[in-house]
Structure formats: structure tokens, C-alpha cells
Amino acid sequence: MILTRLSRVLAGAVLGAGLVSAGCSGGGSSPTTPSTSPSTPSNASVGGSWSGTATDSSGAGLMTWALTQAGTTFSGTLTMTDNSTGTKGSGTVSGTVSGASVSFTMAVPSGGADGSYTTCSASMSGSGTVSGASLSGSYTGTNSCTGSVSSGTVTLSKQ
């Protein structure tokens, strides 16, 4: 249950997209063909502290991510608190950024949660979008104590 909720809270994340201009050249009285520059999307910045909510098949909770970004990859820690039981858990989050899109994996190891969930572990994966200081996404996964984690959504704000 807590790991399932922990998985829910761990979910999440999403990136900002950049725009690239294409240039045209021409001249004289003869017809010209437009010249297109290759586009290079700007990847969203996800490094830093994020906090918000996560909800999945086990319930709702609060979640935080503390991330470090290097190019198109990110990694860091996550913490979550189950709204109904107050159970807390911690683990890792990692993923990739492409434009405004993010793909992520969250993991809470055995011993990462308190209370009756100390022997449980959970892993989830998902994808989402970053828009400015907001990250939202969806995820699914498994919990060693409660089974599958489904219908996960995460909504985080950069602090």
C-alpha cells in the first residue's frame, strides 16, 4: 500500500520545448529555393527541487524530487508521504529529457519506507511534459507487497 502510494508519489515528470527558426535565402530575378536550417529542440531544464502531488491505484500523496541534470539525462532523490496513513518513503528517480518531454523511472528500495512497509520495494516508470515550472505525467509499476501500480499521475512544481 505505502509502496504503491510511494510509487504514485514518485511518478512524474516533463520538459519545456524550444522553437527553432528556419531561414530563407534568395536574390536576383531568378527563382530561388528556400534553405532550411536543421532544427535543434531546446531541452527543458529539470534540475532543482520539485514538489506536488501524485495519485495512483493505491491512493493520493505528496511527492518531492531533488534532481541534477546533465544534458539530456537527470537523476536524483524522491520522497513521498501517503495522505491517508502518513507513511513516508524515499528512493531514486532518473530519466531523460527530449524537448519538453520526459521519461522517468522511480524506485523505492526495501527499507525505503517506514511503518509496515519497510520490507516492500517499488519501481515505476512513466512519461510526461515540462512546461515552464510545471511537470506533469503518468506512470505504472509494481510494488513487492501490494502488486501492480496503475493509473498513476504526478503533478509537480519547480521550487
Helix-strand layout with pairing:
Elements: H1 2-10, E1 48-56, E2 59-70, E3 73-82, E4 88-98, E5 101-108, E6 122-131, E7 134-143, E8 147-158
Antiparallel strand pairs: 1-2, 1-8, 2-3, 3-4, 4-5, 5-6, 6-7, 7-8
Features:
159 residues; mainly beta; 1 helix
Structural class: mainly beta
Mean pLDDT, as a whole number? 83
Shape: elongated
Q: Which sequence of strands runs across the widest sheet?
A: 1-2-3-4-5-6-7-8
**Count of discrete alpha- or pi-helical segments spanning 4 or more residues:** 1
Radius of gyration: 20 Å
Counted beta strands = 8
Give the terminus-to-terminus CA distance: 28 Å
Largest sheet: number of strands, sense, barrel closure:
8 strands, antiparallel, barrel
- Low-confidence parts: 1-25
Q: Order of SSEs, N→C? A: HEEEEEEEE
Proportion in helices = under 10%
How is this structure best described in words?
This protein starts with a helix and ends with a strand. It has an eight-stranded antiparallel β-barrel with strand order 1-2-3-4-5-6-7-8. The chain is built from one helix and eight strands, in the order H-E-E-E-E-E-E-E-E. Strand 6 (122-131) and strand 7 (134-143) form a beta hairpin. Mean pLDDT is 83; it is low at 1-25. The radius of gyration is 20 Å and the shape is elongated. By secondary structure, the protein is mostly beta strands.
Short synopsis of the structure:
The chain has one helix spanning 2-10, and strands at 48-56, 59-70, 73-82, 88-98, 101-108, 122-131, 134-143, 147-158. By secondary structure, it is mostly beta strands.
